[in-house]
Amino acid sequence: MKQRILTGVLAAAIFLPLVIVGRLPFTLLVYAMGILALFELLRMKGMKLLSAPGIISLLLLGILLCPSQFGGTVDFAITKGEIVFLAVLLLLAYTVLSKNSFSFDEAAFAALAAIYIGFGFYYFIEIRNIGLSYVFFAIGVVWSTDSGAYFIGKALGKRKLWPEISPNKTIEGFWGGIFTAVVFSAVYQAATGFPHSYLFVLLITVLLSIVGQIGDLAESAFKRHYHVKDSGRILPGHGGMLDRFDSFLFVMPVLYFLLVLFQPFGL
User: Fold this and answer.
1) In angstroms, rounded to a whole number, what is the distance separating the alpha carbons of residues 239 and 156?
2) Would residue 230 be called left, alpha or beta, if left means φ above 0 and alpha means ψ between -120 and 50 degrees?
3) What's the rounded Cα separation, in Å, for the pair 173 and 155?
4) Residue 78 forms beta bridges with which residues?
5) Contact criterion met (CB below 8 Å) for 160 and 170
6) Among 65, 91, 114, 224, which one is least packed by beta carbons within 10 Å?
7) pLDDT one-digit tens code per residue, 58-67
8) What's the rounded Cα separation, in Å, for the pair 180 and 147?
9) DSSP-derived 3-state class of residue 196
10) How far is CA 128 from CA 42, 123, 155, 240, 249, in A?
11) Please, which residues have CB within 8 angstroms of residue 178's CB and are 6 or more apart in sequence?
12) b/e per residue, 38-68, with b = 16+ CB within 10 A?
């Protein structure tokens, strides 16, 4: 527990100042986190980052992470979606060049890994560009959900939520996580003057809390499938980069979509 707390404090001391600074320093941090997360995910599959499919996946990740202010497209007006398709074609071509020692399943994994991590962290950057208060709101929702789910689940949990995927999670913990996230959001809005109605904040908090827990379960699912306990060891006591940011990879895109969708209504 001491190591876990020390790692958390040191990581926060590096991460939070760069979040506050934003711009290029934060973008470079997100690129580094994305590369580490991709490395961890490919390693679960037994694929090397420094291999032909790994490099294709890495290049795709780099393009998907490119913030909108630096250009959401590349030269000749090629969109990110078209780049994704080009990467898929290259990976499929490699199945031929490797004489099928590199399979369609592995090509699909390499492409999906880059899309999942690339777009997930991309929206982390985009949320920061919208406003610092939204980043701290998302961080608070995720952290309060995790804490509430853990402590309330440990104290009151009896019914398993999804034992085939994560045997320690309970239904009581699931609702406890939502409850603590709602408490956090109410305090956050009262303390910061968050520019939205209490009803809107309540609704998005509940949705983001649920989505964050689904993101956590999704990572648990593929770790269990690949017989891996932690995605990595870069954060002693916490595991790997994916272990710490699995919820954010779901929460940040959903938060961005909600803000864009409901912006015209002035909620």
Assistant:
1) 26
2) beta
3) 9
4) 74
5) yes
6) 224
7) 999 999 999 8
8) 8
9) coil
10) 27, 8, 35, 23, 14
11) 145, 148, 206, 209, 210
12) bbbbbbbbebebeebbbebbbebbebbbbbe
**Neighbouring-strand partners of residue 239:** 235
Q: Where are the alpha helices (DSSP H) in the chain?
A: 2-21, 23-45, 52-64, 80-97, 104-130, 132-156, 171-192, 198-225, 241-245, 248-262
Closest alpha carbon to 37 in 248, 198, 191: 248
Q: What is the Cα–Cα distance from 143 to 245, expressed in whole angstroms?
A: 11
Q: Which of 175, 168, 140 is nearest to 154 (CA)?
A: 168
Q: For a pLDDT cut of 90, what percent of the chain falls above it? A: 67
Pick the range with the lowest mean pLDDT from 4-13, 87-96, 246-255. 4-13
Tens of pLDDT along 193-209? Answer: 888 889 999 999 999 99
Taking residues 100-108, report their average pLDDT: 92
d(CA 237, CA 9): 12
Q: What residues does 166 pair with on adjacent strands?
A: 162
